[in-house]
Amino acid sequence: MSTASHSSHASAFGQLVTGPPGAGKSTYCHGMYQFLTALGRPVSVINLDPAVSNPPYPCAVSITSLITLDDVMEEYGLGPNGAMLYCIEYLEANFDWLVEQLDALLEPQGGSGYIVIDTPGQAELWTNHDSLKRIVNRLLKLDYRLAAVHLTDAHAITDAAKYISAVLLALRAMLQLEMPHINVFSKIDTIGGFGDLPFNLDYYTEVQDLSYLVRQLEEVPRAKRFAKLNAAMAELIEEFSLVGFETLAVEDKASMMHLVRLIDKVTGYVFMPGGTTEENLHALFSSASGTIPGGYADISDVQERWGEGREAFDKAEEERWEREWAMRKQAESMAGGVEGAAGVAGQDDDNLEHMA
C-alpha cells in the first residue's frame, strides 16, 4: 500500500487500554463494548495482543491475523518476552496493514467511529519500548483522537510497596506515551474484601503525601534497608505531580458512565444518534465546559458504595431496578392497549363504510 495523505483515510475517537497482567484489560474492553453498544454508540474493539487469538470480546481487527506469538517463538526460538517485542515491531513495520484494516472498518461509519484498542500486559511495550508509541503517534497523525486508559488492580492500595510500584508504573507510562492519559483503579468493587484501609480511598486516588507510606515501609523488616530508595521514589512521584486515579467497577452502570464521560471530555468526543449539527455542537461544548456527571458525587461515595455500605447500596439499586421494570411493563401495557383500541376503532370505521 502506497503512502497517502491522511485525508484519504478514515479516523476515529477511541481508547488505548494499557496495564499490567491481571489488571482486567480484556474484561474492561468487553465491558466497554457492551456499555457503548447499549448507548447506541458505534464501537469496535481492536486486539493488539499477539498471544490472544480468541479474545473474550467481539473483535473487529486482531493482530493475530498478521502475526502470532506462538509462530514467532517457534520460528525464531525466542522466549515469550522477546517474541512479544518482535510482534509489535513487526506490526510497526507493517503499519499499512493496520491502516487498511481500520479504513475498511471505519469508512462505512461515516466519521462516527469509535475504537477500543486492547494491548498486551508486557510493561516494556508502554514504558520503555518505542514501537507501540510510534504506532500510536502515526494513528494520531491520521487524525485519530485517542486517550490512554491505564488500568491498575485496586488491590494495590492494600500494600504500600505495591501502591508505590503501581504509581511509578503509571507515571512511566504517562511519560512514555505522551498522550491524553487516564489512570484507573479497576475492580474497585472488590475493596470491601480488603479489610480496613490505612487511609481513605481519596488518599490513594489523589496520590497525596506519600511520606506516610514511606513510614509504613520502614516498619516492614525486609524494606528497612531500602529506606532511602523508598523515600527517593516517593519524592520523585511528588515532584512530577502527574498521577491521579479514577475508580471503576465494570459491571456498575454509574461507574462506567462516569469514566466514559471523562474519556469523552479528554478526547473531545460527542455522539448523538440522529442529532443535528447544532445539537452535537451544544453537547460538545457542554461536555467541555461542564462538570463530569456520574453516579457518585465524590470519591467518598465510591468508598461507601463498595465498602461498608455495599449491602445497603445493593438493596437500594435492586429496588430501583424493580421500580424501573414495573414502570416499563406498565408503559408497554398501556401502549398495547392504545394500539388495540386503535385497531378496534379502525374495524368499526370499516363496518360503517360497509353498511353505508
Number of helices: 14
How much is the average pLDDT? 86
Distance between the termini: 73 Å
Largest sheet: 7 strands, parallel
Give me the count of strands: 7
Structural class: alpha/beta
Low-confidence stretches: 1-6, 282-294
* Secondary-structure element string: EHEEHHHEHHEHEHHHEHHHH
Provide the CATH topology. Rossmann fold
Beta-strand proportion: 5-15%
What's the domain count? Answer: 1
Q: Radius of gyration, rounded? A: 25 Å
Care to describe what's here?
With about 350 residues, the chain is an alpha/beta fold. The chain has one domain (about 5-325): Rossmann fold, CATH 3.40.50.300. Helix content is about 55%, strand content about 10%. The protein has 14 helices and seven strands. The protein has helices at about 25-40, 70-75, 80-95, 95-105, 125, 130-140, 160-175, 200-205, 210-220, 225-240, 255-265, 275-290, 300-305, 310-355, and strands spanning about 15-20, 45, 60, 115-120, 145-155, 180-185, 245. The chain has a seven-stranded parallel β-sheet with strand order 3-2-4-1-5-6-7, sandwiched between helices. Helix 2 (about 70-75) crosses helix 3 (about 80-95) and helix 9 runs antiparallel to helix 10. It is flat. Residues about 1-5 and about 280-295 have low confidence and may be disordered.
Concise overview:
The protein is an alpha/beta fold and 356 residues long. It has 14 helices and 7 strands. The longest helix is centred in the last third of the chain and has 46 residues.
Q: Which helices and strands occur, and which strands form pairs?
A:
Layout: E1 13-18, H1 25-38, E2 44-47, E3 59-62, H2 69-76, H3 80-93, H4 95-106, E4 114-118, H5 124-127, H6 131-141, E5 145-153, H7 160-177, E6 181-186, H8 201-205, H9 211-218, H10 227-240, E7 245-247, H11 253-267, H12 277-289, H13 299-306, H14 310-355
Parallel strand pairs: 1-4, 1-5, 2-3, 2-4, 5-6, 6-7
Helix pairs in contact: 2-3, 3-4, 3-6, 7-10, 9-10
